[in-house]
Amino acid sequence: MGHRILAPLGVAALSSCLTLPTLALEARVEGLTGAPEDNVSNYLEGLDATQYSRSRLEGEVRRRTGEALRVYGYYEPDIVLEFVGEKPDSVNVTIDPGPRVKISALDIQVRGEAENDSAFRDVLDAFPLAEGDPLRHAPYDRLRNQLSSLSLERGYFDSIFLERRMEVRPWKQSARLYLILDSGDRYRFGEIDYHGSQIDEARLRQMLPFSPGEPYLAAQLAEYNQRLSQSEWFSSIAIRPRLREEETLALSSSPSHWWEQVERQGSVPSPSVQPTGPVIDATALNSALSLRGRRSLDVPLDVNLVPADRHQFETGIGYATDVGPRLRFSWHRPWLNSAGHSLNHDLFLAAPDQRLTGEYIMPLEDPLRDSYRLQYGFRQRDNEDTQSMEASVELARRWQFDNDWVQSLYLRSTFEDFTQADESAQVFLLYPGISWSRIRTRNPRFPTWGDRQRLAFEYSNRAWGSDANFFRTTLDSQWIRMLGSNTRFVGRIGLGAISTEDFDKIPPSLRFFAGGDRSVRGYSYESLAPRDEEGDLLGGQQLFTTSLEVQRRVTGDWWGAAFVDVGDAFNDWWPSELNTGAGLGVRWISPVGPIRFDIAHPFDDEEKSWRIHFAIGPEF
Protein backbone atom coordinates (compact mmCIF):
# COMPACT_ATOMS: atom_id res chain seq x y z
CA MET A 1 0.00 0.00 0.00
CA GLY A 2 2.84 2.40 0.91
CA HIS A 3 4.61 1.80 -2.41
CA ARG A 4 1.40 2.58 -4.30
CA ILE A 5 1.23 5.99 -2.58
CA LEU A 6 4.93 6.86 -2.84
CA ALA A 7 5.23 6.01 -6.54
CA PRO A 8 2.83 8.71 -7.75
CA LEU A 9 4.41 11.19 -5.33
CA GLY A 10 7.84 10.42 -6.78
CA VAL A 11 6.62 10.88 -10.31
CA ALA A 12 5.01 14.22 -9.36
CA ALA A 13 8.21 15.40 -7.70
CA LEU A 14 10.30 14.39 -10.69
CA SER A 15 7.86 16.15 -13.05
CA SER A 16 8.02 19.36 -10.99
CA CYS A 17 11.82 19.30 -11.15
CA LEU A 18 11.79 18.78 -14.89
CA THR A 19 9.41 21.70 -15.41
CA LEU A 20 11.37 24.24 -13.31
CA PRO A 21 12.00 27.38 -15.38
CA THR A 22 15.52 27.86 -16.70
CA LEU A 23 17.44 30.90 -15.45
CA ALA A 24 18.65 33.19 -18.22
CA LEU A 25 22.10 34.76 -18.07
CA GLU A 26 21.83 38.36 -16.93
CA ALA A 27 23.91 40.69 -19.10
CA ARG A 28 25.05 44.21 -18.19
CA VAL A 29 26.23 46.21 -21.20
CA GLU A 30 28.67 49.12 -20.85
CA GLY A 31 30.34 51.38 -23.40
CA LEU A 32 27.28 51.81 -25.63
CA THR A 33 24.15 53.94 -25.59
CA GLY A 34 20.90 54.10 -27.50
CA ALA A 35 19.79 51.56 -30.10
CA PRO A 36 23.11 49.60 -30.33
CA GLU A 37 23.07 49.01 -26.56
CA ASP A 38 19.44 47.89 -26.66
CA ASN A 39 20.16 45.54 -29.55
CA VAL A 40 23.05 43.86 -27.73
CA SER A 41 20.84 43.37 -24.68
CA ASN A 42 18.11 41.86 -26.87
CA TYR A 43 20.56 39.46 -28.53
CA LEU A 44 21.84 38.23 -25.14
CA GLU A 45 18.41 37.99 -23.57
CA GLY A 46 17.30 34.45 -22.80
CA LEU A 47 20.78 32.91 -23.07
CA ASP A 48 20.87 29.84 -20.79
CA ALA A 49 24.36 29.55 -19.30
CA THR A 50 23.75 25.99 -18.08
CA GLN A 51 23.72 24.74 -21.69
CA TYR A 52 27.36 25.74 -22.32
CA SER A 53 30.81 25.11 -20.94
CA ARG A 54 32.72 28.19 -19.75
CA SER A 55 34.69 28.56 -22.99
CA ARG A 56 31.68 27.89 -25.23
CA LEU A 57 29.60 30.38 -23.21
CA GLU A 58 32.23 33.06 -23.75
CA GLY A 59 32.26 32.32 -27.49
CA GLU A 60 28.48 32.44 -27.71
CA VAL A 61 28.32 35.79 -25.89
CA ARG A 62 30.97 37.24 -28.21
CA ARG A 63 29.21 35.88 -31.29
CA ARG A 64 25.83 37.31 -30.35
CA THR A 65 27.32 40.65 -29.36
CA GLY A 66 29.17 40.88 -32.67
CA GLU A 67 25.99 40.12 -34.63
CA ALA A 68 24.07 42.75 -32.70
CA LEU A 69 26.70 45.40 -33.44
CA ARG A 70 27.17 44.59 -37.13
CA VAL A 71 23.62 45.60 -38.03
CA TYR A 72 24.57 49.12 -36.89
CA GLY A 73 27.84 49.17 -38.82
CA TYR A 74 30.28 48.21 -36.04
CA TYR A 75 32.38 45.37 -37.50
CA GLU A 76 35.55 45.62 -35.38
CA PRO A 77 34.47 45.99 -31.75
CA ASP A 78 36.68 45.29 -28.74
CA ILE A 79 34.64 43.13 -26.35
CA VAL A 80 35.69 42.46 -22.74
CA LEU A 81 33.70 39.88 -20.77
CA GLU A 82 33.58 39.46 -17.00
CA PHE A 83 31.54 36.50 -15.75
CA VAL A 84 30.17 36.57 -12.21
CA GLY A 85 30.13 33.37 -10.18
CA GLU A 86 31.71 29.95 -10.57
CA LYS A 87 28.63 28.88 -12.48
CA PRO A 88 27.97 32.21 -14.17
CA ASP A 89 24.56 33.72 -13.67
CA SER A 90 25.52 37.14 -15.05
CA VAL A 91 28.10 38.75 -17.27
CA ASN A 92 29.46 42.28 -17.59
CA VAL A 93 30.01 43.14 -21.26
CA THR A 94 32.28 46.14 -21.82
CA ILE A 95 32.36 47.22 -25.45
CA ASP A 96 34.57 49.58 -27.39
CA PRO A 97 32.60 49.59 -30.69
CA GLY A 98 35.56 50.85 -32.75
CA PRO A 99 35.18 52.70 -36.05
CA ARG A 100 31.79 52.60 -37.75
CA VAL A 101 31.42 51.46 -41.34
CA LYS A 102 30.01 54.13 -43.66
CA ILE A 103 28.29 53.80 -47.02
CA SER A 104 30.74 54.59 -49.82
CA ALA A 105 28.53 53.52 -52.76
CA LEU A 106 24.77 53.24 -53.02
CA ASP A 107 22.96 51.98 -56.10
CA ILE A 108 19.20 51.60 -55.60
CA GLN A 109 17.08 51.34 -58.75
CA VAL A 110 13.72 50.19 -60.05
CA ARG A 111 13.61 49.38 -63.75
CA GLY A 112 10.85 48.27 -66.04
CA GLU A 113 7.28 49.53 -66.00
CA ALA A 114 7.38 50.15 -62.23
CA GLU A 115 10.02 52.85 -62.77
CA ASN A 116 7.17 55.31 -63.39
CA ASP A 117 4.86 53.88 -60.72
CA SER A 118 4.31 56.48 -57.97
CA ALA A 119 4.07 53.81 -55.27
CA PHE A 120 7.60 52.62 -56.03
CA ARG A 121 8.91 56.18 -56.29
CA ASP A 122 7.47 56.97 -52.85
CA VAL A 123 9.24 53.96 -51.33
CA LEU A 124 12.57 54.92 -52.90
CA ASP A 125 12.17 58.57 -51.83
CA ALA A 126 11.54 57.44 -48.25
CA PHE A 127 14.74 55.34 -48.10
CA PRO A 128 16.69 56.93 -45.21
CA LEU A 129 20.28 56.02 -46.18
CA ALA A 130 22.65 57.98 -48.43
CA GLU A 131 26.32 57.87 -49.36
CA GLY A 132 28.43 58.93 -46.39
CA ASP A 133 25.87 57.75 -43.80
CA PRO A 134 26.77 55.14 -41.17
CA LEU A 135 25.72 51.67 -42.26
CA ARG A 136 22.50 50.24 -40.89
CA HIS A 137 21.22 46.90 -42.12
CA ALA A 138 17.54 47.30 -41.21
CA PRO A 139 16.58 50.00 -43.78
CA TYR A 140 18.22 48.01 -46.59
CA ASP A 141 16.45 44.78 -45.61
CA ARG A 142 13.16 46.64 -45.18
CA LEU A 143 13.45 48.25 -48.62
CA ARG A 144 14.09 44.87 -50.24
CA ASN A 145 10.95 43.43 -48.61
CA GLN A 146 8.89 46.50 -49.52
CA LEU A 147 9.84 46.24 -53.19
CA SER A 148 8.99 42.53 -53.24
CA SER A 149 5.61 43.14 -51.58
CA LEU A 150 4.76 46.06 -53.85
CA SER A 151 5.54 43.97 -56.90
CA LEU A 152 3.00 41.34 -55.84
CA GLU A 153 0.38 43.83 -54.64
CA ARG A 154 0.55 45.95 -57.82
CA GLY A 155 0.70 43.19 -60.40
CA TYR A 156 4.41 43.06 -61.35
CA PHE A 157 4.50 39.29 -61.21
CA ASP A 158 7.60 38.97 -63.45
CA SER A 159 9.74 41.15 -61.18
CA ILE A 160 13.24 40.00 -60.31
CA PHE A 161 16.23 41.50 -58.49
CA LEU A 162 19.11 41.99 -60.91
CA GLU A 163 21.38 43.09 -58.05
CA ARG A 164 20.84 42.41 -54.38
CA ARG A 165 24.01 42.52 -52.37
CA MET A 166 25.82 44.34 -49.59
CA GLU A 167 29.62 44.54 -49.77
CA VAL A 168 31.23 45.47 -46.46
CA ARG A 169 34.98 46.21 -46.13
CA PRO A 170 35.62 46.60 -42.40
CA TRP A 171 39.32 47.36 -42.86
CA LYS A 172 38.32 50.40 -44.94
CA GLN A 173 35.22 51.22 -42.86
CA SER A 174 33.20 51.24 -46.07
CA ALA A 175 30.15 49.45 -47.48
CA ARG A 176 28.60 49.26 -50.91
CA LEU A 177 24.87 48.63 -51.22
CA TYR A 178 23.29 47.39 -54.44
CA LEU A 179 19.58 46.79 -54.97
CA ILE A 180 18.25 46.81 -58.54
CA LEU A 181 14.74 45.54 -59.28
CA ASP A 182 13.52 44.80 -62.79
CA SER A 183 9.74 44.84 -62.46
CA GLY A 184 8.89 43.66 -65.95
CA ASP A 185 5.41 44.45 -67.28
CA ARG A 186 2.42 45.09 -65.07
CA TYR A 187 -0.45 42.62 -65.26
CA ARG A 188 -4.06 43.67 -65.74
CA PHE A 189 -7.37 42.46 -64.40
CA GLY A 190 -8.85 39.87 -66.73
CA GLU A 191 -12.33 38.44 -67.08
CA ILE A 192 -14.34 37.65 -63.95
CA ASP A 193 -16.13 34.35 -63.41
CA TYR A 194 -18.74 34.06 -60.63
CA HIS A 195 -19.56 30.74 -58.99
CA GLY A 196 -22.38 29.93 -56.57
CA SER A 197 -24.09 33.34 -56.51
CA GLN A 198 -27.85 33.64 -56.11
CA ILE A 199 -27.66 37.35 -57.10
CA ASP A 200 -27.70 38.54 -60.72
CA GLU A 201 -24.18 38.77 -62.11
CA ALA A 202 -24.90 42.27 -63.46
CA ARG A 203 -25.66 43.41 -59.91
CA LEU A 204 -22.33 42.04 -58.66
CA ARG A 205 -20.43 43.72 -61.47
CA GLN A 206 -21.96 47.06 -60.50
CA MET A 207 -20.05 46.80 -57.22
CA LEU A 208 -16.64 46.34 -58.84
CA PRO A 209 -14.07 49.05 -57.95
CA PHE A 210 -12.18 48.23 -61.17
CA SER A 211 -12.86 47.11 -64.73
CA PRO A 212 -11.26 44.28 -66.74
CA GLY A 213 -8.21 45.64 -68.49
CA GLU A 214 -7.21 48.02 -65.68
CA PRO A 215 -3.83 47.54 -63.93
CA TYR A 216 -3.87 44.86 -61.26
CA LEU A 217 -4.04 46.12 -57.67
CA ALA A 218 -4.49 43.76 -54.72
CA ALA A 219 -6.03 46.55 -52.62
CA GLN A 220 -8.93 46.73 -55.08
CA LEU A 221 -9.54 43.01 -54.64
CA ALA A 222 -9.69 43.58 -50.89
CA GLU A 223 -12.12 46.45 -51.44
CA TYR A 224 -14.34 44.31 -53.66
CA ASN A 225 -14.27 41.57 -51.04
CA GLN A 226 -15.41 44.12 -48.47
CA ARG A 227 -18.19 45.46 -50.68
CA LEU A 228 -19.60 41.99 -51.25
CA SER A 229 -19.47 41.39 -47.49
CA GLN A 230 -21.30 44.63 -46.74
CA SER A 231 -24.16 43.55 -48.97
CA GLU A 232 -24.86 40.70 -46.48
CA TRP A 233 -25.95 38.52 -49.41
CA PHE A 234 -23.26 35.89 -48.83
CA SER A 235 -22.00 33.79 -45.94
CA SER A 236 -18.63 33.14 -47.61
CA ILE A 237 -16.62 35.06 -50.21
CA ALA A 238 -13.38 34.01 -51.90
CA ILE A 239 -11.78 36.03 -54.70
CA ARG A 240 -9.03 34.11 -56.48
CA PRO A 241 -6.83 35.62 -59.21
CA ARG A 242 -6.05 32.74 -61.57
CA LEU A 243 -2.32 32.84 -62.29
CA ARG A 244 -2.01 29.14 -63.03
CA GLU A 245 -4.68 26.52 -63.10
CA GLU A 246 -3.33 24.88 -59.94
CA GLU A 247 -2.20 27.94 -57.98
CA THR A 248 -3.73 31.30 -57.20
CA LEU A 249 -3.16 34.55 -55.41
CA ALA A 250 -6.15 34.27 -53.13
CA LEU A 251 -8.12 36.40 -50.79
CA SER A 252 -9.28 33.98 -48.15
CA SER A 253 -12.93 33.35 -47.46
CA SER A 254 -14.52 36.04 -45.35
CA PRO A 255 -17.53 36.03 -43.07
CA SER A 256 -20.66 37.75 -44.26
CA HIS A 257 -20.68 40.43 -41.60
CA TRP A 258 -18.48 43.31 -42.77
CA TRP A 259 -17.97 44.68 -39.26
CA GLU A 260 -16.01 41.53 -38.40
CA GLN A 261 -13.38 42.58 -40.94
CA VAL A 262 -12.93 46.35 -40.66
CA GLU A 263 -13.49 49.34 -38.32
CA ARG A 264 -16.63 51.08 -39.17
CA GLN A 265 -15.76 54.37 -40.88
CA GLY A 266 -19.00 55.01 -42.59
CA SER A 267 -17.89 54.12 -46.12
CA VAL A 268 -15.89 51.76 -48.30
CA PRO A 269 -12.18 52.64 -48.43
CA SER A 270 -10.78 54.36 -51.46
CA PRO A 271 -9.09 52.11 -54.03
CA SER A 272 -5.89 54.08 -53.47
CA VAL A 273 -5.62 52.89 -49.89
CA GLN A 274 -3.13 50.06 -49.48
CA PRO A 275 -4.16 47.24 -47.11
CA THR A 276 -2.25 47.16 -43.85
CA GLY A 277 -2.07 43.37 -43.75
CA PRO A 278 -1.34 40.59 -46.22
CA VAL A 279 -3.97 40.07 -48.91
CA ILE A 280 -2.11 37.28 -50.77
CA ASP A 281 -1.78 33.70 -49.61
CA ALA A 282 1.41 31.71 -49.04
CA THR A 283 1.59 30.38 -52.61
CA ALA A 284 1.69 33.87 -54.10
CA LEU A 285 5.43 34.16 -54.64
CA ASN A 286 5.83 30.80 -56.32
CA SER A 287 2.82 31.46 -58.51
CA ALA A 288 4.07 34.88 -59.51
CA LEU A 289 7.59 33.71 -60.32
CA SER A 290 6.19 30.95 -62.53
CA LEU A 291 4.62 33.52 -64.82
CA ARG A 292 7.78 34.59 -66.64
CA GLY A 293 7.33 33.95 -70.29
CA ARG A 294 3.52 34.11 -70.28
CA ARG A 295 2.19 35.85 -73.35
CA SER A 296 -0.97 37.27 -71.81
CA LEU A 297 -0.76 39.89 -69.10
CA ASP A 298 -4.40 39.39 -68.09
CA VAL A 299 -5.20 37.90 -64.68
CA PRO A 300 -8.67 36.25 -64.70
CA LEU A 301 -10.59 36.25 -61.42
CA ASP A 302 -12.66 33.49 -59.89
CA VAL A 303 -15.24 34.79 -57.39
CA ASN A 304 -16.64 31.92 -55.30
CA LEU A 305 -19.74 32.79 -53.27
CA VAL A 306 -21.94 30.96 -50.79
CA PRO A 307 -25.42 32.47 -50.24
CA ALA A 308 -26.28 33.74 -46.78
CA ASP A 309 -29.14 32.14 -44.88
CA ARG A 310 -32.44 33.50 -46.16
CA HIS A 311 -33.87 33.87 -42.63
CA GLN A 312 -31.81 35.28 -39.78
CA PHE A 313 -33.15 35.87 -36.27
CA GLU A 314 -31.74 37.80 -33.34
CA THR A 315 -32.99 38.44 -29.83
CA GLY A 316 -31.79 40.82 -27.16
CA ILE A 317 -32.65 41.56 -23.55
CA GLY A 318 -31.69 44.77 -21.79
CA TYR A 319 -32.56 47.24 -19.11
CA ALA A 320 -32.57 51.02 -18.82
CA THR A 321 -34.05 53.25 -16.16
CA ASP A 322 -35.91 55.17 -18.90
CA VAL A 323 -38.04 52.20 -20.00
CA GLY A 324 -37.20 49.42 -17.52
CA PRO A 325 -36.70 45.86 -18.85
CA ARG A 326 -36.76 45.67 -22.62
CA LEU A 327 -36.89 42.89 -25.18
CA ARG A 328 -35.93 43.08 -28.84
CA PHE A 329 -36.59 40.50 -31.54
CA SER A 330 -35.44 40.96 -35.13
CA TRP A 331 -36.10 38.97 -38.29
CA HIS A 332 -33.74 39.71 -41.16
CA ARG A 333 -34.00 38.42 -44.72
CA PRO A 334 -30.74 39.59 -46.39
CA TRP A 335 -31.93 38.62 -49.88
CA LEU A 336 -35.38 37.98 -51.27
CA ASN A 337 -34.65 37.64 -54.97
CA SER A 338 -31.88 37.75 -57.55
CA ALA A 339 -31.97 41.57 -57.56
CA GLY A 340 -30.75 41.60 -53.95
CA HIS A 341 -33.86 43.08 -52.31
CA SER A 342 -33.95 42.61 -48.53
CA LEU A 343 -36.49 42.77 -45.72
CA ASN A 344 -36.07 43.59 -42.02
CA HIS A 345 -38.53 43.41 -39.14
CA ASP A 346 -37.89 44.55 -35.59
CA LEU A 347 -40.06 44.11 -32.50
CA PHE A 348 -39.28 46.20 -29.40
CA LEU A 349 -41.13 45.63 -26.13
CA ALA A 350 -40.87 47.76 -22.99
CA ALA A 351 -43.42 48.85 -20.39
CA PRO A 352 -43.98 52.41 -21.71
CA ASP A 353 -43.23 51.76 -25.39
CA GLN A 354 -43.93 48.91 -27.85
CA ARG A 355 -42.91 49.07 -31.51
CA LEU A 356 -43.08 46.85 -34.58
CA THR A 357 -41.18 48.21 -37.58
CA GLY A 358 -40.41 46.86 -41.03
CA GLU A 359 -38.16 47.96 -43.88
CA TYR A 360 -38.08 46.75 -47.48
CA ILE A 361 -34.84 47.74 -49.29
CA MET A 362 -34.53 47.88 -53.09
CA PRO A 363 -30.90 48.53 -54.11
CA LEU A 364 -30.27 50.58 -57.26
CA GLU A 365 -27.30 50.93 -59.61
CA ASP A 366 -24.81 51.21 -56.75
CA PRO A 367 -26.31 48.64 -54.35
CA LEU A 368 -24.38 49.77 -51.26
CA ARG A 369 -24.94 53.49 -51.71
CA ASP A 370 -28.22 54.01 -53.56
CA SER A 371 -31.58 52.47 -52.75
CA TYR A 372 -35.32 52.89 -52.35
CA ARG A 373 -36.65 52.04 -48.90
CA LEU A 374 -40.21 51.32 -47.84
CA GLN A 375 -40.61 51.60 -44.08
CA TYR A 376 -43.72 50.87 -42.02
CA GLY A 377 -44.52 50.43 -38.38
CA PHE A 378 -46.89 50.42 -35.45
CA ARG A 379 -46.19 51.99 -32.09
CA GLN A 380 -48.00 52.19 -28.75
CA ARG A 381 -46.87 54.53 -25.96
CA ASP A 382 -48.09 54.90 -22.39
CA ASN A 383 -45.69 57.11 -20.48
CA GLU A 384 -46.37 59.84 -17.92
CA ASP A 385 -49.18 61.93 -19.46
CA THR A 386 -48.86 60.46 -22.97
CA GLN A 387 -50.99 57.72 -24.47
CA SER A 388 -50.89 57.11 -28.20
CA MET A 389 -51.39 54.56 -30.94
CA GLU A 390 -49.48 55.26 -34.14
CA ALA A 391 -49.31 53.68 -37.60
CA SER A 392 -46.93 55.00 -40.25
CA VAL A 393 -45.64 54.31 -43.76
CA GLU A 394 -42.62 55.97 -45.36
CA LEU A 395 -41.12 55.77 -48.85
CA ALA A 396 -37.53 57.04 -49.04
CA ARG A 397 -34.80 57.50 -51.63
CA ARG A 398 -31.39 57.10 -50.03
CA TRP A 399 -27.93 58.17 -51.25
CA GLN A 400 -24.58 57.63 -49.54
CA PHE A 401 -21.86 60.02 -50.70
CA ASP A 402 -18.09 59.63 -50.85
CA ASN A 403 -17.69 61.93 -47.84
CA ASP A 404 -19.63 59.42 -45.67
CA TRP A 405 -22.81 61.51 -45.48
CA VAL A 406 -26.14 59.81 -46.12
CA GLN A 407 -28.97 61.80 -47.69
CA SER A 408 -32.54 60.59 -47.46
CA LEU A 409 -35.51 62.18 -49.25
CA TYR A 410 -38.77 60.74 -47.97
CA LEU A 411 -42.54 61.00 -47.88
CA ARG A 412 -44.13 59.89 -44.64
CA SER A 413 -47.76 59.29 -43.69
CA THR A 414 -48.82 58.89 -40.07
CA PHE A 415 -52.11 58.18 -38.36
CA GLU A 416 -52.02 58.73 -34.60
CA ASP A 417 -54.73 58.38 -31.99
CA PHE A 418 -53.42 60.14 -28.87
CA THR A 419 -54.15 61.71 -25.54
CA GLN A 420 -51.67 64.26 -24.22
CA ALA A 421 -52.62 65.59 -20.78
CA ASP A 422 -56.32 66.50 -21.30
CA GLU A 423 -56.03 66.86 -25.10
CA SER A 424 -57.27 64.00 -27.29
CA ALA A 425 -57.32 63.75 -31.05
CA GLN A 426 -57.04 61.48 -34.06
CA VAL A 427 -54.85 62.99 -36.76
CA PHE A 428 -53.62 62.02 -40.19
CA LEU A 429 -50.39 63.65 -41.39
CA LEU A 430 -48.75 63.42 -44.80
CA TYR A 431 -45.44 65.21 -44.99
CA PRO A 432 -42.24 65.11 -47.04
CA GLY A 433 -38.85 65.40 -45.42
CA ILE A 434 -35.14 65.39 -46.09
CA SER A 435 -32.31 64.36 -43.77
CA TRP A 436 -28.54 64.17 -43.75
CA SER A 437 -26.71 61.88 -41.36
CA ARG A 438 -23.29 60.43 -40.73
CA ILE A 439 -21.87 57.98 -38.21
CA ARG A 440 -18.15 57.28 -37.87
CA THR A 441 -16.55 55.13 -35.18
CA ARG A 442 -13.38 53.28 -34.36
CA ASN A 443 -13.83 50.18 -32.23
CA PRO A 444 -17.66 50.13 -32.34
CA ARG A 445 -18.05 48.13 -29.09
CA PHE A 446 -16.50 50.96 -27.06
CA PRO A 447 -15.49 53.75 -29.47
CA THR A 448 -12.15 55.46 -28.86
CA TRP A 449 -13.05 57.97 -31.59
CA GLY A 450 -16.28 58.72 -33.31
CA ASP A 451 -19.04 61.16 -34.10
CA ARG A 452 -22.66 61.13 -35.13
CA GLN A 453 -24.68 63.86 -36.80
CA ARG A 454 -28.22 64.09 -38.11
CA LEU A 455 -30.07 67.10 -39.53
CA ALA A 456 -33.68 66.79 -40.75
CA PHE A 457 -36.40 69.09 -42.15
CA GLU A 458 -40.07 68.11 -42.46
CA TYR A 459 -43.09 70.01 -43.80
CA SER A 460 -46.82 69.34 -43.66
CA ASN A 461 -49.73 71.24 -45.23
CA ARG A 462 -53.48 70.84 -45.31
CA ALA A 463 -53.35 71.41 -49.07
CA TRP A 464 -52.50 67.73 -49.65
CA GLY A 465 -54.73 66.22 -46.98
CA SER A 466 -52.80 66.61 -43.69
CA ASP A 467 -54.73 67.63 -40.59
CA ALA A 468 -52.09 70.22 -39.58
CA ASN A 469 -49.66 72.71 -41.07
CA PHE A 470 -46.16 72.61 -39.63
CA PHE A 471 -42.46 72.97 -40.39
CA ARG A 472 -40.22 70.86 -38.16
CA THR A 473 -36.43 70.66 -37.91
CA THR A 474 -34.13 68.61 -35.67
CA LEU A 475 -30.38 68.47 -35.16
CA ASP A 476 -28.51 65.86 -33.14
CA SER A 477 -24.74 65.63 -32.81
CA GLN A 478 -22.43 63.61 -30.60
CA TRP A 479 -18.64 63.30 -30.40
CA ILE A 480 -16.22 60.89 -28.75
CA ARG A 481 -12.53 61.73 -28.48
CA MET A 482 -9.59 60.34 -26.51
CA LEU A 483 -6.78 62.18 -24.71
CA GLY A 484 -3.99 59.65 -24.47
CA SER A 485 -5.09 56.09 -23.85
CA ASN A 486 -6.88 56.53 -20.51
CA THR A 487 -9.05 59.66 -20.81
CA ARG A 488 -12.20 59.78 -22.91
CA PHE A 489 -14.51 62.72 -23.66
CA VAL A 490 -18.14 62.39 -24.75
CA GLY A 491 -20.05 65.48 -25.90
CA ARG A 492 -23.62 65.79 -27.13
CA ILE A 493 -26.02 68.49 -28.34
CA GLY A 494 -29.62 68.29 -29.49
CA LEU A 495 -31.83 70.98 -31.04
CA GLY A 496 -35.41 70.88 -32.25
CA ALA A 497 -38.10 73.31 -33.35
CA ILE A 498 -41.59 73.08 -34.82
CA SER A 499 -43.43 76.06 -36.28
CA THR A 500 -47.21 75.62 -36.38
CA GLU A 501 -50.53 77.26 -35.64
CA ASP A 502 -52.08 73.82 -35.05
CA PHE A 503 -50.12 72.61 -32.01
CA ASP A 504 -53.18 70.79 -30.65
CA LYS A 505 -53.10 68.65 -33.82
CA ILE A 506 -49.41 67.80 -33.46
CA PRO A 507 -49.15 64.23 -32.05
CA PRO A 508 -46.77 63.34 -29.16
CA SER A 509 -44.39 61.62 -31.58
CA LEU A 510 -43.57 65.03 -33.11
CA ARG A 511 -43.60 67.15 -29.93
CA PHE A 512 -40.45 67.65 -27.88
CA PHE A 513 -39.68 66.26 -24.41
CA ALA A 514 -36.41 66.17 -22.43
CA GLY A 515 -35.02 64.18 -19.51
CA GLY A 516 -33.70 60.66 -19.12
CA ASP A 517 -30.64 58.50 -19.72
CA ARG A 518 -29.82 59.98 -23.14
CA SER A 519 -31.04 63.51 -22.49
CA VAL A 520 -30.78 65.32 -19.14
CA ARG A 521 -29.78 62.89 -16.40
CA GLY A 522 -31.13 63.53 -12.92
CA TYR A 523 -34.67 63.80 -14.32
CA SER A 524 -37.04 61.01 -15.31
CA TYR A 525 -37.68 59.97 -18.88
CA GLU A 526 -39.39 62.73 -20.95
CA SER A 527 -40.45 64.62 -17.80
CA LEU A 528 -39.16 68.03 -18.92
CA ALA A 529 -41.64 69.95 -21.08
CA PRO A 530 -44.31 72.66 -20.73
CA ARG A 531 -47.25 71.66 -18.51
CA ASP A 532 -50.89 72.67 -18.30
CA GLU A 533 -52.56 74.30 -15.31
CA GLU A 534 -52.97 70.94 -13.60
CA GLY A 535 -49.29 70.10 -14.00
CA ASP A 536 -49.71 67.54 -16.79
CA LEU A 537 -47.11 67.42 -19.56
CA LEU A 538 -48.06 68.97 -22.89
CA GLY A 539 -44.80 68.72 -24.80
CA GLY A 540 -42.84 71.61 -26.30
CA GLN A 541 -42.36 73.35 -29.62
CA GLN A 542 -38.61 73.77 -29.09
CA LEU A 543 -35.86 71.63 -27.61
CA PHE A 544 -32.32 72.22 -26.42
CA THR A 545 -30.10 69.68 -24.66
CA THR A 546 -26.36 69.44 -24.24
CA SER A 547 -24.01 67.22 -22.27
CA LEU A 548 -20.32 66.93 -21.48
CA GLU A 549 -18.84 63.80 -19.93
CA VAL A 550 -15.26 62.98 -18.95
CA GLN A 551 -14.29 59.34 -18.46
CA ARG A 552 -11.06 58.04 -16.93
CA ARG A 553 -9.81 54.47 -16.98
CA VAL A 554 -9.57 53.05 -13.47
CA THR A 555 -8.23 49.62 -14.39
CA GLY A 556 -8.64 47.31 -17.37
CA ASP A 557 -12.19 47.60 -18.71
CA TRP A 558 -13.43 49.74 -15.80
CA TRP A 559 -13.85 53.48 -16.23
CA GLY A 560 -15.06 56.28 -13.95
CA ALA A 561 -17.14 59.16 -15.30
CA ALA A 562 -18.17 62.69 -14.35
CA PHE A 563 -20.82 64.56 -16.33
CA VAL A 564 -22.98 67.69 -16.61
CA ASP A 565 -26.26 67.71 -18.60
CA VAL A 566 -28.30 70.81 -19.42
CA GLY A 567 -31.56 71.13 -21.34
CA ASP A 568 -35.31 71.52 -21.58
CA ALA A 569 -38.30 71.46 -23.93
CA PHE A 570 -40.23 74.76 -24.13
CA ASN A 571 -42.52 76.93 -26.24
CA ASP A 572 -40.86 80.37 -26.17
CA TRP A 573 -37.37 80.61 -27.58
CA TRP A 574 -35.15 81.15 -25.55
CA PRO A 575 -36.28 79.84 -22.11
CA SER A 576 -35.53 81.91 -19.03
CA GLU A 577 -34.00 78.89 -17.29
CA LEU A 578 -32.63 75.48 -18.28
CA ASN A 579 -32.66 72.35 -16.15
CA THR A 580 -29.26 71.07 -15.05
CA GLY A 581 -28.16 67.66 -13.83
CA ALA A 582 -24.69 66.49 -12.85
CA GLY A 583 -23.17 63.42 -11.30
CA LEU A 584 -20.71 60.56 -11.29
CA GLY A 585 -20.79 57.18 -12.97
CA VAL A 586 -19.08 53.87 -13.66
CA ARG A 587 -18.52 52.28 -17.07
CA TRP A 588 -17.70 48.59 -17.62
CA ILE A 589 -16.85 47.29 -21.09
CA SER A 590 -18.60 43.96 -20.84
CA PRO A 591 -18.58 41.22 -23.52
CA VAL A 592 -22.10 42.32 -24.53
CA GLY A 593 -21.25 46.03 -24.71
CA PRO A 594 -20.70 48.92 -22.31
CA ILE A 595 -22.71 48.96 -19.10
CA ARG A 596 -23.34 52.44 -17.66
CA PHE A 597 -24.30 53.22 -14.08
CA ASP A 598 -24.80 56.88 -13.10
CA ILE A 599 -25.93 58.78 -10.03
CA ALA A 600 -27.14 62.25 -11.00
CA HIS A 601 -28.32 65.22 -8.96
CA PRO A 602 -31.10 67.39 -10.49
CA PHE A 603 -30.34 70.99 -9.51
CA ASP A 604 -33.83 72.23 -10.48
CA ASP A 605 -35.98 69.54 -8.86
CA GLU A 606 -36.82 70.26 -5.23
CA GLU A 607 -38.64 66.97 -4.73
CA LYS A 608 -35.76 64.63 -5.59
CA SER A 609 -32.11 64.99 -4.59
CA TRP A 610 -30.67 62.29 -6.85
CA ARG A 611 -31.62 59.72 -9.47
CA ILE A 612 -29.98 56.48 -10.63
CA HIS A 613 -29.52 55.86 -14.35
CA PHE A 614 -28.58 52.43 -15.65
CA ALA A 615 -28.22 51.37 -19.29
CA ILE A 616 -26.56 48.74 -21.48
CA GLY A 617 -25.33 49.45 -24.99
CA PRO A 618 -23.00 51.76 -26.90
CA GLU A 619 -23.35 55.54 -27.05
CA PHE A 620 -24.08 55.48 -30.79
Automatic annotation (TrEMBL):
UniProt subcellular location: Cell outer membrane
Domain Bacterial surface antigen (D15): 326-620
Native organism: Litchfieldella anticariensis (strain DSM 16096 / CECT 5854 / CIP 108499 / LMG 22089 / FP35)
Protein name stated in the entry: Translocation and assembly module subunit TamA
Keywords: Cell outer membrane, Membrane, Signal, Transmembrane, Transmembrane beta strand
GO biological process entries: protein secretion
Domain of life assignment: Bacteria
UniProt entry tagged with the keyword RNA-binding: no
GO CC terms: cell outer membrane; TAM protein secretion complex
Family: Belongs to the TamA family.
Subunit details: Interacts with TamB to form the translocation and assembly module (TAM).
Residue ranges of every copy of the TamA POTRA domain listed in the record: 28-97
